[in-house]
Design a protein that fits this description.
With 86 residues, the chain is of the alpha+beta class. The protein has one domain: Alpha-Beta Plaits (2-Layer Sandwich), CATH 3.30.70.20. The chain is built from two helices and two strands.
Length: 86
Amino acid sequence: MALMITGECVNCDVCAPECPNQAIHEGPEHYDIDPARCTECVGHFDAPQCVQVCPVACIPQNPAHPESRAALLVKFARLTNAAQTA
C-alpha cells in the first residue's frame, strides 16, 4: 500500500526530504504523497522514513492504493531504473 498524509499534518516540512522516491510534495492544505511514487521505502529502508520522522503520526497506509510487498518492490525497481537512466 502506498501511504497517505491526513489532515492532522502540521506542515512541519520534515517528511519530504526523507522520502527516497520524492513522493511527498506540498499540497493545497498539507503535504501529500503521490501513490505512484510511494513504495513505503521498500527497497530503500526497513521502515517508511516519513512515518519515522512525523511528529504527529499522520501518515497511515492509503486504503485506496492496496499493494503487496512484491508490488512495492516492482515499483521500486521501476523508479530506480528511471532515475538511473535520467
